[in-house]
Write a structure and sequence with these properties.
210 residues, 8 helices, globular
């Protein structure tokens, strides 16, 4: 497998693990583990392929579902050994976001040749699975946390597209973009990095709208 294939499988497995960890926090049965693991693991990639108009990756290659199921079962038997499941969930999500963000950009560029589409696919692929997980498990949404999240996937996707435009080889481009995205999201978790937030101001009075 080339480096982007590794990022693909790693992203699926790690996202599946975060889905299973969410299931453990909600004390679900094994079916709940399998469901949340699969939805989280393949959610971002499914949206990406539907938007790109290409065959959905896990329909073509069933091994992805096996990876999700095996990961969910493993977490089911080991989650009780962890001291802080939510903290681990966030860090696994960070690694998965970085890996899947770069792979989404790779596939977007491969299918369309458009840098803009590739960057958008990187953001969608890297974040959608985690958002689905939090909605279904009724966990605090990673999207609503103050730390940088979507911007980390954007950074990885941008870096990959830029490095490829500079004719950097695939392994170097993918590896470098992955590490950059992981550093951005990891820094946000470790040090609370944020982007400037919108500050609300009083609305205009109705008479000002004339």
């Amino acid at each position: 497998m080339n480096p982007v294939d590794i990022l693909d499988y790693a992203g699926v497995a790690l996202f599946a693990a975060t889905g299973a960890l969410a299931a453990s926090r909600k004390q679900l049965d094994i079916i709940g583990f399998l469901f949340l693991g699969a939805v989280t693991g393949i959610g971002g990639g499914t949206l990406r392929d539907l938007v790109l108009g290409v065959p959905v990756f896990w329909v073509q290659q069933h091994l992805y579902l096996v990876v999700c199921a095996a990961t969910a079962v493993l977490v089911n038997f080991t989650a009780h050994l962890l001291e802080s499941r939510y903290r681990l969930l966030l860090w696994l999500d960070a690694v998965a976001l970085a890996a899947y963000g770069v792979f989404g950009a790779y596939k977007g560029l491969l299918v369309t040749g458009s840098a803009t589409v590739a960057i958008a696919m990187g953001m969608l692929t890297g974040t959608f699975g985690g958002i689905l997980r939090d909605v279904l498990a009724r966990e605090p949404s990673v999207l609503m946390r103050q730390e940088i999240y979507v911007a980390a996937a954007l950074t990885g996707a941008l870096a990959y597209v830029a490095l490829r435009a500079l004719d950097i080889g695939l392994p170097m481009a993918a590896g470098g973009a992955f590490l950059l995205a992981l550093c951005v999201r990891g820094g946000a978790l470790a040090f609370g990095w944020t982007l400037p937030a919108y500050r609300s101001h009083p609305g205009r009075a109705p008479e000002d709208l004339r």
